[in-house]
Amino acid sequence: MKKIITTTKAPAPIGPYNQAVQYGNILYTSGQIAINPTSGKLETSDIVSETKLVMENLKAVLEAAGMTFENILKTSIFISDMNNFAAINEVYASYFDENTAPARETVEVANLPKYVNVEISAIAGK
């Protein structure tokens, strides 16, 4: 019943994990960061572009599982500086309908993988 979800349209895992795992109708995505899936390079020049790439990577993982942002039940956002919250939130909001947006938590952390500024994971269901 556990199904591993992978796509070349999102960054390959950089450790012992998968891009997502589907269990029944529920999808658990790993945290996405701003790695360009084509070049394999980090793109962190500004927080708006970085967040957009994170969301596009998340979109690619969802699509690999036959889902969209409409399927997301909950997201977790980890940011290295709460002063970036407004810019991150503006990009994030553009991917959802406010009336049906998922539950969410946003947490400032001391550090993130590869020293990125934002990481986002999701739980989605069909």
Automatic annotation (TrEMBL):
Pfam name, any one: Ribonuc_L-PSP
Keyword Transmembrane helix listed: no
Keyword annotations of the record: Hydrolase
One MF annotation (Gene Ontology) recorded for this entry: hydrolase activity
Family as reported in the entry's similarity comment: Belongs to the RutC family.
Protein name listed in UniProt: Rid family detoxifying hydrolase
Species of provenance: Jejudonia soesokkakensis
